[in-house]
Structure formats: structure tokens, C-alpha cells
Amino acid sequence: MANKIYQNPQGALEGLLRDGMTIMSGGFGLSGNPESLIPVIRQSGVKNLTVISNNAGADGFGLWMLLETRQVARMISSYVGENKLFEQQYLSGQLELELNPQGTLAERIRAGGAGIPAFYTKTGYGTVVAEGKPVEEFDGEMYIRETWLRSDLSIVKAWRADPSGNLMFRRTARNFNPEMAMAGRVTVAEVEEIVPAGTFDPDCVHLPGIYVDRLVQSTINEKRIEKLTTRPREDNNG
């Protein structure tokens, strides 16, 4: 079996990056971002990238790093969110943006991994989302046709992996990561922990290793909180 484990994030991406490529990047808000691999892409200087991600990180974190250096020419996303740089570049015309309903984005990525070139959905019918897309009627309801999404490279973040690349994700950090791994021509996974072969119960594997080409232990695991909400402590003396 070929060795999938690389010693550092730079080595894990060596030979994979080029100008104009399409990259899928896992994560939802600040959860499950491949935060060790993104800085390597930034340092490489590749440009004119199309990046597929639910959002583009948050101010100062995640894919924001690639927006700051103007390496991203086009985003395919579902949420601009709290990322002020993302919003600014889009509104000023510096960044091309294709917004998708979030469920549609997830299904387009899943379809790419499953080899399904197109599917129909009611979401967006009668809105600007449907402009220029084929429409068909099924059982008296109108549906628009959406196409798959695939990438030249998918970068994902997982909790644990074994040497074969079988992955486990932790709670909400799972988000888009498994589907993006399946939809990439090449997938690089950074993980918090690499465990010996045979550690995983097969029923607990969230993504089979067949979808992972390269593995690296993550060097950044910040686990930031995007919005911290608190309430006053109750007075229990009363």
C-alpha cells in the first residue's frame, strides 16, 4: 500500500498547486477548516483560483488569508456571512461570486463525488437562482436543474485518521468535509491525530480512505469561537 502520510503541510501539497485551479475547502464558519493547509496555499503564490466553500472563513482566519492576498478570482459559496473582506471584494467587483442555496451547494458537491452530473430541485424556482437554468415539471411541481461540482484539489480537516486514510470527524466539524473529499480529483486531509491501523471500528469510519490521497497531521488547531454568547450568572443566594 502506498504511504499516504506526509511529514508537514508543505509536503502534503507539493506538486499539486497551480494557477487557475479549482479548490474545494471544507468547513462551516470556523468549524472544520483545513487551517494548516490554507497558509501553504497562500505561501505558494498561486493565483486566479476558483474556491468552493460554504463561506470564506471569517475575518483573519481560514480562506480569508487567500482573499487578502487576492489569490482567489471566483468563489462558489452559500454564505458571505461575517467576512467583511469577502463582502467588500464582491461588492467592489474584485471577486466573482456564485451564490447557492446551502442545501443546493451541498447536493452539488455530493453529486460531484457520486458521479451524478445533474439533478433537479425546487429550491430557487421562480427566483434569480433559476435564471438560465433548465426547468422541468415533476408531479405538478416545477424544478430547476443544477449541475455537479468537482475540484482539482480538495482540502479537508478531520479529527482522526488511520494510515489508510480512513477518517473520523468530530461533531459539527464534519459539515462539508466528507462530500468535498469525495468530489476532489486529489484530496489532502489534515487531521488532529493519526492512529495505528486497526484502531477504528469500521462502523465508526465517516469517510473511507479510498477518497483520501494524502494525509498530514495538522499543525494548527485553534478551535475558535465565531460568536460567543453569554448570559449573566444566576444569583443562587436568594
UniProtKB/TrEMBL annotation:
SUPFAM superfamilies: NagB/RpiA/CoA transferase-like. Keywords: Transferase. It comes from the Bacteria. Pfam families: CoA_trans. The keyword Transferase applies. GO terms for molecular function: CoA-transferase activity. InterPro entries: 3-oxoacid_CoA-transf_A (IPR012792), CoA_trans_fam_I (IPR004165), NagB/RpiA_transferase-like (IPR037171). This is CoA transferase subunit A.
